Amino acid sequence: MAHLVICILLTVSLSAYACDLVLETSPMCRDDSYCNERYRLAHQYKDSAAVFRATVLSAVRLNRQAWPFSRMTVQIDHVWKTDGGPLDIIESGYGQGDCGIVLKVGRQYIIFAARQSGDVSGTPSKKKPLAIGVPGFPVQISPDEGSSEKTRSFQYMQRDAAYSVLDNAGK
Fold first, then answer.
1. What is the rounded average pLDDT for all residues in the chain?
2. Domain spans, the chain
3. CATH 2.40.50.120 holds for 17-144+157-169
4. What is the DSSP string of 105-170?
5. What is the pTM for the complete model shown?
6. Which residues contact 25 (CB under 8 A, 6 or more apart)?
């Protein structure tokens, strides 16, 4: 009976969802959240096809049975990295277990995006829209109104860490 309980506990504790965000941390950072956020964002920058600051102009839910489920149009404010493809259309999921993120219209974000695959081979195509989702979370420039002090502090820290990474990205 004890072996059964141990097996059940191990099974439950090891299960994970496909969209779980695994936050990379650096051994050099220890418990320093700002240092760890810079480390995570530096990796995110390296793995992204495009990194830019943009204001969301529209967000539309697509009436589809397959991903992407939402499409956002953005106005580009500043570009740090691009693959040469269009940057103004971003596709994602609904954010309800599909690894997607729906950005808020009128808000400004630093967006770390991947280029969608062009064909069944999985090769990215510069003609395809950008995609966002786990782990490429966008960084909100200013906190949501009415959010808690703890949330606002985290959002400001994340924004400052992103700018620190981006200011040093080309060096």
1. 75
2. 17-144+157-169
3. yes
4. TT-EEEEEEEEPBSSTT--B-TTSPEE-BTTB--EESSPPTT--HHHHHHHHHHHHHHHHHHHHHT
5. 0.74
6. 36, 39, 40
